[in-house]
Amino acid sequence: MNVNSIATDKRQLSRLGYALLLILALALPFLGFMDRSKMSVAVLAGIYVILGLSLNIIVGYAGLFQLGHAAFYGLGAYTTAILSINYGVPVLLSIPIAALIAGIAAIIISKPILHLRGDYLCIVTIAFGEIFRIAAVNNIFGITGGSNGLFGTARPEFLLPWIEPIPLITLIAILIVYAITVRKSPLNVQLLGGAAIALAYYLPPLITGQEPLFVLSIVMGLLGLLVASMTHNFSYREAGALWGIAVVFALIMLIGGGNLAGAIDQGVRDTFKVGDPIEGPMGMTFVPVAFKRDPIPYYYLVLIFIIITLVGMLRLQDSRLGRAWLYVREDELAAEATGIDTTRVKLAAFAIGSAWAGVAGTLYASRFTVVSPDSFDFLQSVIIFCIVVLGGSGSIPGILVGTLGMVVLPELLRDVAPTFLIEGIGPFAILALILAFYIHSRRQHLTKAALEAGAIALAFIAPTLLTAQPSLYLAGIVAALVGVWIASELNRRDINPIPWLWGGAVIYIALLTLAGQGLAQSLSDGIHNFRITDWRDGLMGAAMVLMMILRPAGLIPERRRGIVFSAVAEVGEGESVSTPQLA
Amino acid sequence: MALLELQDIHTYYGHVHALKGISLQVEEGQIVALIGANGAGKTTTLRTISGLLRPRSGSIIFDGNPIHRMPAHRIVHLGLTHAPEGRQVFPTLTVQENLNMGAYTLGNDKEAIEENRRRVFKLFPRLEERKNQLGGTLSGGEQQMLSIGRALMSRPKLLMLDEPSLGLAPMLVKAIFETIREINRQGVTVLLVEQNARAALKLADYAYVLETGTIALEGPAGELLRDERVRKAYLGET
Amino acid sequence: MEKFLQQLINGLTIGGFYALVALGYTMVYGVLKLINFAHGDMFMWGTLVGWALLAALVAPLAGMDLVAILITSVVVMGVIGAVGVTIERVAYRPLRKAGRLSPVISALGAAFVLEALARNATEARVKVYPQNLLENLPSIPLIGGVSLSGLQLLMLITCVLLMVGLYAFVQRTRIGTAMRAVSLDHDVSRLMGINVDQIITLVFFIGPALGGIGGVLVGLYYRSFDFTLGWIFGLKAFIAAILGGIGNIPGAVLGGFVLGIVETMATAYGGAGASAWKDAIAYILLIIILIARPTGILGETVAEKV
Amino acid sequence: MNRRVLAITVLVVMLVSMSVPMSVGAQEGEPILIGLQGPMTGDYAYEGQGFQKAVQLMVDLTNEQGGILGRPVELIVEDDAGDPTQAALVAERLVDAGVVAVIGAYNSTATEPASEVYHEAGILHITPSSTATRLTEKGFEQFFRVCFLDDRQGLFAVRFMDEVLGAERIGILHDNSTYAAGLAEWTRYYAEEAGLEVVFYDAINPEDQDFTPILTNIGEVNPDAVYFTGYHAQGGLLLRQTADLGLDIQWIMGNACNNPELIEIAGVDAAAGTFITTEPLPQDLDYPEAREFVELFEETYGEPLTSIWWLMAAEAFNVIRYAIEETGSTDTEVLADFLHNEFHDFPGLTGPIIGFDEKGDRLGTIHVAYIIDEDGNFVLYPEQPAAGEEEEAAPAEEEEAGEAEEAATEEESTAEEEEGG
């Protein structure tokens, strides 16, 4: 067993993909269709991404069951709420405390049970999650507020040192980075470019006396840096371009700067609660700034944490500990044989994952200001678990997709009129999914698969087309699923399913065309009385079953990180590959 | 027509191509041995025949029936049993219950079961002494006896044995091989997988040598025993 | 003493219900090494179907309560057994070789589906069993003022009879032995000519059918239920199965009674607030057992690999 | 490669199928939008759906009569499932939809985060059923409630046990929900003040089916009366199992047990003789508006109006309607100012609304005691505790209660928040 044969992880999304995603994420609040409520959903989804990533350490990396993750998430949230409400600790400061408490709790709880078989571990984590919830409901130690939970967690607040030194420091930082970026160019070119950035940066606020313009200036400084760094050979031409930009910018600012400054100032005051300045040491002034209800600052706060989490996870994945997790996940006995302290490695996964869930809990508490036991019950644990597993255990893009499916989609489905969903676009989406999965699973014989799929599609669409009763799509969905099932059963038995499928489709169509009217009416009534929120859990459950049957490894499974303990592990049977050769 | 015939069998474990075109025949009344090193595909061959693994291509004909697509439990009904490697008796079932499971295909035919049991107890008197003990509490040799006895309970036409000598003391190995000969004499065809090539070749009528999923050599056992290459690679001679 | 005896009876009754449901868990776990999370919800469906049937039968069979209950029980066994078999076919069988995570997710998914169906069928409301069923069963006076109500006795007898029957089936019959064989090793069982899929189907019939009966009994005893019943009861029953040693039929029964009695006694003698902590007590008991004796009270000490 | 294509296909299909319908829901004319937020699904779905039925009926009636200020009224319903996270999200949705006022949410846990959203957005917000003290103590001038704080019910229950039943040793049982625990705490506070001896005080686990252990314990202590403050599902089981165990316990139950299902679950024989402290039942309200509405409700939906909270939700709508009509404005500040200062003696469905205090709490109280008779009906108990002082000096009483409230809060930290329903 060659442990060094582990290939490095091939990132599933290329760097470009990540970059595009980041740009999209940064720009999201400015997209036209994003209103406050959708931004709120985005914030919530962001928190779940962090949760999914944290659980991924435990489930995806170390391969351990954890169906009580919500307890650690809740522990973090309650810690923050209690510290904030009772002791006035600013929420951002409580992040390390929340992480620490969740992490320590994870160590205490998981240490005695880590040696248990997978499914026992699973049930113990469920039990722990329930104990947490019951303790919270019972107002343990009189600090959890019972089943209503705790009200009034503070929003994030921070002191903004708002005076000259800050722009100055920012400028210096930008210039240093700039100097490093263009360090191969002649000194005079460097100086010229730097002066351009400084000009674009400082001139407008200096001339107009409008300090808020520094916000725009930071953008300009970064833009200048980008221009400078884009070229390998930074020359007079690029420096000239910088000057051009700087001058144009300065001119625009001089003309419209006053209004712009006002708008920026207003924007900041609308979004944040800006307190009275506090005099600090060394002549500095601090402006207390607190979040308001507005989701956008939260969005960026959560985004920052997602990025921190992602970077941390990618680093962990490639670290010694990350490799140790991999071995433990793939083959615990073999890992132990190579000298890995498996208990400690697993404990580390539990502790790190849980601590990070605690951080997500802090973000939750400060966003929603209320923590209550119901928000951290078993269903939450399942949702987080599904985010990890449905997307593909161990896979980071999988978590993003999982969050979309488990958190974002249900929220967006609120908007969907059931009639439209079921009679309009929904059926085709479902049919497309069925056929895509179907053809995918029969890749070897594309023509045959297409013929079979065609019959299924016909059974799906034809009755509606013939009778002009959209509600018959519902019967069509059933027909399509039955068709897929029949096809797979017949294929398994080496019977050619094509005549059966087509025959069945034709009979079905004939029957529905004859008797479709009445059925269509009752189905239609059913659809109109259908309340999608009633069925959310059920649909979620059906999706879970379906997904597992069709893609047991998840939607975007982690590409095997190249660990093959040689064929032996799979062939088993005690046979090894060392073969004496016949002469 | 041979009792068992494999034609160009290919079997995969996931992406691992384990059997790369195995063809072999077992004539009625014979003892046929499959020998080869660890990982050559001996066990895989047996598991493919008995239906635990499904070959990706090729055909297996047993007693005139194609069985390569048949589920394992139906193959047993045709009279082909397989005593798996490593004495896999049911540890928490008693000896008697283990044997009854061997006769599962006979249904509720009490008489036939009783008769088969008597035959097995005759072959392995030790089992009768311990018939109410749990399978897991038997010694290694006894478990091997139980495993073979269990496979005989359905009165098979062909018995496949996987490494019956594995991990047994030399004395016991000898006794087991004696019994196999006795079983064969009673009219049961035997397909034997063995690492102990010498003993297997001595016992068998015909033998196949497997190497990395293909048949490298075949011939009457006596001839193989004298074959230079076999002696070098498998009999530890130089 | 009187109080203790009364509490013991209370504990035994609830323990009997746990035991009935635990049997299904333990059988499925035995043959598939799968925690059938949908089992608790199948049990709840037993209560639900039983409720619907009884409501329909009470009027035509007025005065013949026992007949109505008997018919209901048989039908519920069939229906819930069929549900179990269907769930196995749809949600578990395709995943037999898919690793450990996938069946867990699938099982949870199936549980959610069952629960959502029940919630919508009952409009998320408490449903009440028909009034005055089995009203005139005599109660049996024991020492002191303590008495065992007729209903309690009926429940206990039914539970015990079903369990003894199941145990005899598994221990004495050919199919039962085959079940035990399958739980030990699928491949070797196949080599014996056992149709493993059929045995699994059978297990997925018997377990839920027993759970369904348990559901009817719970409905009769408590007279009301709602769709959330399945999850809590299921979890408790699973704990009972682990307590007794999962995969072990007498163990599941013992575990059920132990859990019922421990819960009851903890509530009775645990002082104020203990009742609200009852579930937590069960979970803590589970964790202690798993740390101290992972194979449960009656579990064999055969080491099982991770 | 193929997998990625597949995954992307799936994603695109998902996105397409969810992005298209966003534009649905165009408006006609210029209706006044009223939001209703409540648990349409989840554990409290029954109550939430009742809210919707009751308020929708009121809206329809209003529109039949020509709307408010000649403008039609449109009700926008959002489901928060009783969950604070969802409550905040749906509140944002209602704000985005441009509602004038919001009715909801059901439980205090959901109302709290929603009230912050409405406060910042400047939208009139009335809860029909959230009774947590804290909600009105944040100084949100546009937040009101039409229900009563639960200290009043606790006081009433104690008076009833003391004056009417003549109990000396009482037991109190709750179910650990904040509402029930809070009511239990208040009851204990007033009981001790009144000199009653609380010989049993404990909680049940509402997820249980079997309460025989704790009932056996109560039987041992044998109090003169036991007050259960939890919900009707458990209340019914308690009564049933009391009878099954052959115990003789005089039960009194709080307003969350004011539901015919209690009797169904318990069985008439087991339920008979139980007292319920509650706001008056719709049919016992001596207000024509109430009776008319209750009848209309039954006529429209084919089911009786069983929960007082549904009536409270309709009440909240009437208050909003009245305020808009009186002021001729849909401006939140104007409406809030009107409700605080000029809104008096409104003929409400749940009794006359004397007014709102400066915190937004409803003034006065209306609790009465019912008994379940041999036929399984809730009947107004002929004897009620001397009520006089309470109704005469309601505002003063309110202040007094406020002080008592503070005292109790200091003593019992668990009594901080209470929840309705």
Task: Give an account of the 3D structure.
The complex is a heterotetramer of chains A (about 575), B (about 240), C (about 300) and D (about 425). Chain B is of the alpha/beta class. Chain B is built from ten helices and ten strands. In chain B, β7, α7 (about 170-185) and β8 form a beta-alpha-beta unit. In chain B, α3 packs parallel to α6. The radius of gyration of chain B is 17 Å and the shape is globular. Chain C has a single domain, classed as ABC transporter involved in vitamin B12 uptake, BtuC (Orthogonal Bundle), CATH 1.10.3470. In chain C, β2 (about 140) and β3 form a beta hairpin. The N and C termini of chain C lie far apart (about 45 Å). Mean pLDDT of chain C is about 85; it is low at about 300-305. Chain D is α/β, with parallel strands linked by helices and about 425 residues long. Chain D has two domains: about 30-150 and about 285-340, Rossmann fold, CATH 3.40.50; about 150-280 and about 365-405, Response regulator (Rossmann fold), CATH 3.40.50. A seven-stranded mixed sheet of chain D has the order 7-6-8-9-10-11-12, with helices on one face. In chain D, strands 2-1-3-4-5 form a five-stranded parallel sheet, sandwiched between helices. The radius of gyration of chain D is 23 Å and the shape is elongated. The interface of A and B includes residues 567, 575, 576, 578 and 579 of A.
CATH superfamily of the largest domain in chain D: Response regulator
CATH architecture term of the largest domain in chain D: 3-Layer(aba) Sandwich
Evaluate the radius of gyration of chain D: 23 Å
Summed up, the helix count of chain D is 15
SSE class of chain A = mainly alpha
Question: How many discrete structural domains of chain A?
Answer: 4
Helix content of chain D: 40-55%
Outline the low-pLDDT stretches of chain D.
14-28, 388-421
- State the CATH topology of the largest domain in chain D: Rossmann fold
Mean pLDDT figure of chain A: 75
Distance between the termini of chain A: 27 Å
Radius of gyration of chain A: 29 Å
Number of strands of chain A: 4
What brief labels describe this structure?
heterotetramer, A: 583 residues, mainly alpha, 4 domains, 21 helices, disordered N terminus, disordered C terminus, D: 421 residues, alpha/beta, Rossmann fold, 15 helices, 14% strand, elongated
How are the secondary structure elements laid out?
The complex is a heterotetramer of chains A (583), B (238), C (306) and D (421).
Chain A: H1 15-27, H2 36-61, H3 69-87, H4 91-110, H5 118-137, E1 157-161, H6 165-181, H7 187-208, H8 213-230, H9 236-271, E2 272-274, E3 278-279, E4 285-291, H10 295-318, H11 320-330, H12 332-337, H13 342-368, H14 378-392, H15 396-413, H16 418-441, H17 446-467, H18 472-492, H19 498-528, H20 536-550, H21 566-571
Antiparallel strand pairs in A: 1-4, 2-4, 3-4
Chain B: E1 4-13, E2 16-26, E3 31-36, H1 42-49, E4 57-62, E5 65-66, H2 72-77, E6 80-83, H3 95-102, H4 110-123, H5 125-129, H6 140-152, E7 158-162, H7 170-185, E8 189-194, H8 197-203, E9 206-211, E10 214-220, H9 221-226, H10 228-234
Parallel strand pairs in B: 3-8, 3-9, 6-7, 7-8
Antiparallel strand pairs in B: 1-2, 1-4, 4-5, 9-10
Helix pairs in contact in B: 3-6
Chain D: H1 2-19, E1 32-38, H2 45-64, E2 73-79, H3 84-97, E3 101-104, H4 108-121, E4 124-127, E5 143-145, H5 151-164, E6 169-174, H6 178-193, E7 197-203, H7 212-221, E8 225-228, H8 232-244, E9 251-253, H9 260-266, H10 268-271, E10 275-278, H11 288-301, H12 308-327, H13 332-341, E11 368-372, E12 378-380, H14 388-392, H15 394-411
Parallel strand pairs in D: 1-2, 1-3, 3-4, 4-5, 6-7, 6-8, 8-9, 9-10
Antiparallel strand pairs in D: 10-11, 11-12
Helix pairs in contact in D: 2-12, 3-4, 5-6, 8-9, 12-13
